[in-house]
Automatic annotation (TrEMBL):
It is found in: Cell outer membrane. It is a multi-pass membrane protein. It comes from Arsenicibacter rosenii. Residues 646-740 form the TonB-dependent receptor plug domain. Keywords: Cell outer membrane, Membrane, Signal, Transmembrane, Transmembrane beta strand, Transport. The lineage of its organism: Bacteria, Pseudomonadati, Bacteroidota, Cytophagia, Cytophagales. It comes from the Bacteria. PROSITE patterns: TONB_DEPENDENT_REC_3. One of its GO terms (biological process) is siderophore transmembrane transport. InterPro entries: Plug_dom, Plug_dom_sf, TonB-dep_rcpt-like. The keyword Thylakoid does not apply. This is TonB-dependent receptor plug domain-containing protein.
Amino acid sequence: MLKSPHRVIWFAGLAIAVTLVAFKVTDDSFIEHLAGKLVAYNQQLPREKVYLHTDRETYMPGETIWMKGYLVNGALHTTDSTSRVLYVDLIDMNTRKQWMRLNLKADYGYAPGYMALPDSLPAGTYQLRAYTGWMRNFPNEVYTKTLTLFQANEEIKQAAQPNAVDIQFLPEGGNLIAGLAGRVGFKAVDETGKGADIAGFVLDAKKDTIVGFEAMHLGMGYFSLTPEAGQSYTAYVKRKGEAYKAFPLPAVQTDGYVMMVDNLSNKDNIRVLIAHTKPLSAQTNASLIFQSRGLLVQASKLPLTKRSFWVQIPREKFPEGVGQITLFDETNKQVAERLFFVDHKERLNVTVKADKASYKPREEVKLDITVTDNEGKPAKGNFSLAVTDTKLAPEAEAAPQTIASYLLLESDLKGEIEQPGYYFDEKNDTRNIKLDLLMMIQGWRRFTWPEVLSGDYPTLAYDVETGLTLSGQAVKPGRPVARTRRKPGEGEIAPGLLIPDKAASAKASPNKVKLTVVATSKDSTRSFMMGETDDEGHFALFGLAMTDTTNVFIQATSLKGNNRNYNVTLDAFEPAKVMFTKVPFNPIVVRREEWGDFVRRTNEYLELEEQLRKNNERMLKEVTVKAKKLEPTDTRRMMYGAADASVKFDQMNTAGAMTILDVIRSRVAGVMVTGSGTSATVQIRGAANFQGAIEPLFLMDGMPVDKETALTISVQDVEAVDVIKGASTAMYGSRGAGGVIAILLKRGGSGTVNTNYTPMGTLLAKIPGFQPRREFYAPRYDVSKPEHVRPDHRATLHWQPMITVGESGKSSVSFFASDALTRLRIVTEGAAVNGMPGSSREFVEVKR
């Protein structure tokens, strides 16, 4: 039995007779219908969750945000390996301007990365968002985190004293019903969006005092009320030293249901009190649905034979986290709802132990990590660890967010949760009471029951992404570019898939276009793809694995290949919708003496960097840099990159030549030209099969042409001929089995060549790929290096995003302390493959 001073008033004022009953799923058509619809809804609209662990919450322009994304299944919290792209945006919360975006590659549900902040970034409050492509369909479920950027040369701005309080009154379950006792929760917030410590009282229309109340925790509290028909109620609220301010309570309904939940007094069962004003009848039923994250736990039919009754359900039936109870009336209309939290303590126990109680500056710190499950057995998992200087990396809250608080609590509630870590700290004796208070006040539904029951699901605009996506449209000039999305399955081009089928192409729409796509990364890795658009010219490439900035060359032709008069455009990336309720005041609180130390150290470091730069400038001797001039990119060569051989056409070698073969004859090793004029034949490296010699594939400005067309081109119109042979021809498939001869025509006036010319029907673009991996650098002071003479005042001393803990449940990490005499914060976050989260928060001292 829970012993608490709050329990004696938990159901105070409920002078009604109740009957305790337990119901099981019954053979009821509505319940069966609802259960089926709920299953179908979750199959059609499965959810994902993302948690982002960053090394800290405060930065300066020019610094780096180190991060790791965790992707999990929205219902089961198991590691999500379906989506393999994680987008991370940095948004200015005042202007809503997006400053940066990252494409992080997620392997097995883990996505480490970093964000290098530009020096030009203004100080202020920012929102860091993380989401998958699929999560863009549900913008309310995008992960967000508030970060603060300081300028070293600015004095910290002190928080203005808030002078206004806003308060909401929320009847438990939904409504105030005349004659039925119930509880009214409330939440008061100040201008910063944080909970306000308030007190007040409720008056009826006659100005009689009904009840007094005060906040129990972070501006939240509740009071009991039995409303009367025809009455209106007003709450008068104030903070200490301020005047009262009036707030109306919700209107009293004359008829309906009241639902109250007791999740505290019984260790095994969750108890639900139902009271109503409906006519009593054994033939009339209400329905009660228990579910968690969209997974149905129990459904009950409730005969309305009494004015009030209890329903109870074993707590063990629910998974760890937020559960939801919904009451449907006798007409199958949703009339009341309440959230509650189930705490099975199914969380990893993460222990990080340092080898010493304190350390000296620049001394090596060794950490042993031990992970066990809720039964104390060694547990496997993947973790990230951040070590920061508490003076240089202040935190916004005393009990900040953790991976457990986000996955189990915050991701299933509406709005910002203040001090979320408080509810998971075993040292807080009354945390369960306050957590249930939070459930009463800040509960929400991630879907509406009418939507579930109707089966009329929203149209989804975005697909699950197993890689990066590139989409666009190819249309004839003068035809408007349609911005409507393609239909699923139409215009999809799979990497390496050679289409179209000739029989299908014969029946195709005249607006269909044949595409060839070449993607070239910085390391010269090249991907070659072919396919067709849909009937409107839309196309999309899925599952791309490009790294860093990638050059993409797209060539469009008619299905027969005889027309390339097309405009090719790419679709702009559509980020998740920005969801702001209001811009909060900068929540970071830094003591003035610590801020002064922070500014001093930062300025010293910046001055040192500037002095080193000047010294280097003086020490450098005059040098002569020799390098080859970079040739401009020729878009016609994007298909194959560098040729195996190239013959430049000029007046000397084209004199007397009738065809291009006459010019390249005997000038390229391995190329054999037989005959002359238009009847000449050519073989590259003796290519042949059982049917005889195989002639090469001819290209003209990147477009395939037949041999006859190639040999009718005047040699005076040709700039050069490239020859591609051997493995380089693999991208052309069977068509390139005999090699490739690429003809490049002259462009521009007076026979000059414009290598930047983009032929009709082509597009060359640079697109962002996956962010390349980068290791966190930290000095090692166990070896002597010249750069160690510099002062070391790092805010982040160590960041290790991929710590694998095996069967033993153990791992180890080491790093070196900086020059600062300070306290180090060691935060470890992670999860097991089965979704059980865990974290650790430890501190070590650095002193002389």
